[in-house]
Amino acid sequence: MDCHPETQNDARIVMLIDDEPAQSRLITAIAARDGWRTIVAPDAETAIAMLGTREGMQLSAILLDQWVPGDDACTLIAELKSRRPALPILMLTTSASPLLAVEAMRAGASDYLVKPVSPDRLMEALRSVTTREAPRDELAPLTEKMSAHLDFDAMIGTAPQFRTALAQAAKAARGHGHVLIEGETGTGKEMLMRAMHGASPRSKESLRIINLASVPPGSIESVLFGHEPGSFPGAFDRQIGAFQHCDGGTLVLDEIDRLTPAIQQRLCEALTSGIIRPVGASYGFRVDVRLLVTSNLGLDLMVEAGHFDADLASRLSITRIQLPALRDRTGDIPALSRHFLARIGEQPGLNHLSVSDSALALLAAYDWPGNVRQLQSVLFRAAVYCEGNSLTADSFPQLSEMLGEQGSVTVASAHEGVGIMLYTPDGNLRPLEEIEADVIRLAIGHYRGRMTEVARRLGIGRSTLYRKLSDLGIDNAA
To answer: pLDDT by residue (tens digit) across 186-206?
Structure first.
């Protein structure tokens, strides 16, 4: 039986387990915009009973507010999964605790969303867990479970494009000009901007981050500039805008390409004059704010297409930084993976894990459309379910399935020892003596047995080389 049958009107159905009418109405409205129909269960007993109804049999997903079952949320997740194993469950909670995320996932949750969750993030999570074309669990993006480090040292990678971007950012951080950071979703734009603020002369001043994709278009002007009472229906009180909050500090505008033409022009005028005028105000005031903005799309292309104001783009891109996609720096995947696993191991309920060469080879073979953020999510999910001390290729079954023959060849090559393997198949470091022996064998083969050249390239004397050959039991004809 198809676990995600469509209803007669082709609307997908999501069950919301929630006892707050206001939140239920909000989520129902958000889901409806993306073609979902929502049925609401106010408590756990009703939710379980509804699984057996006609609508319950047509569910595509469940949204569970943690506060409904309280401390028994994971118990309810496990119960729902036992009755409908293929049905994805997303938990909504106000807690950012990694331990709760681990417990929810081990109970069977597909994702874990911290309230207040933006409409885009909610829809992204629902789409990810219900997409038929790709594996739904292992490669689906997860909500951020770990607080980000805020300095440049936490930006891992040696790829030339990436190091160039970091060098640009470090230099720009010391100035006061506006900065545009472009790159695909998940490449680390927000983390880089936090690092820039932390290294800037404004580091002691306010930092505010606004994801424009999560702000209703009609509210963006008020959020940025503030408003006066009575300036529009529902404006009962004065609101201070982000520019005023960040006077002397840094304002981050994520996904600047989402701005409407009218707000683009308004922002350009404010940057030109340095004066902020709240909505409905007859006055303005001068502020000193540095803008760091991001774009998932190329602003130059948007300007050419007439979708973005050329003057605003020019003012925002005094410094322009391009972060490369992870598929363009696959050589950084081993270092990134070990870095993330070290951080994951610090989270409550999780262990410090190593990662095998076969697993790293498999990870490097994937093109990572969600980039570094997706890699971290995949490692987090694998760590949650890992019962040993190391992640191996077997820890990523859906990734292996997706890559098919390519993944099998990649893993086989890793096991056969292409290059020098630093790790055993179970993920532990090999003894130094074995690694040294492999290096010497590789050098002898590479330089076709010319021992003088081998010694020179290894930085040791010929006598030392021959002694090592004897001690390690290596035939110099190897």
So the answer is: 899 989 999 999 999 999 999
pLDDT bin (cut points 50, 70, 90) of residue 4 is very low
Q: What local confidence, expressed as pLDDT, does residue 149 receive? A: 58
- CA dist 147 and 257 (Å) reads 26
Token readout for 433 is 């003596």
Structure tokens at 445: 């083969």
**Is the model's pLDDT at 41 over the cut of 90?**
yes
Q: What is the pLDDT of residues 11-23, one digit of tens each?
A: 789 999 998 898 8
Give mean pLDDT, residues 407-427: 55
Distances (CA, A) of 20 to 26, 32, 120, 122, 194: 10, 18, 21, 17, 35
Tell me what the pLDDT averaged over the chain comes to.
Answer: 84
At residue 409, does pLDDT exceed 80? no
Q: Could you tell me which residues come within 8 angstroms of residue 160 by beta carbon, excluding any fewer than 6 positions away?
A: none
Copy the structure tokens of residue 287: 């502020």
Look at residues 209, 224, 218 and name the one whose alpha carbon lies nearest to residue 278: 224
**Cα–Cα distance for residue pair 272/249, rounded to 1 Å:** 18
**Cα separations (Å) of 89 from 104, 107, 198, 278?**
10, 10, 37, 42
Backbone angles phi and psi of 17, in degrees to 5: -95, 100
pTM for this one?
0.72
Give the model's pLDDT for residue 432.
87
Residue 396 neighbours by CB under 8 Å, 6+ apart: 138, 359, 362, 363, 378, 382
Query: Where do the domains of the chain lie, and which CATH numbers do they carry?
Result: 12-130 (3.40.50.2300), 160-322 (3.40.50.300), 432-472 (1.10.10.60)
Could you tell me if 426 and 388 are in contact, meaning their C-beta atoms sit under 8 angstroms apart?
yes
Output phi, psi for 174, to 5 deg: -80, -10
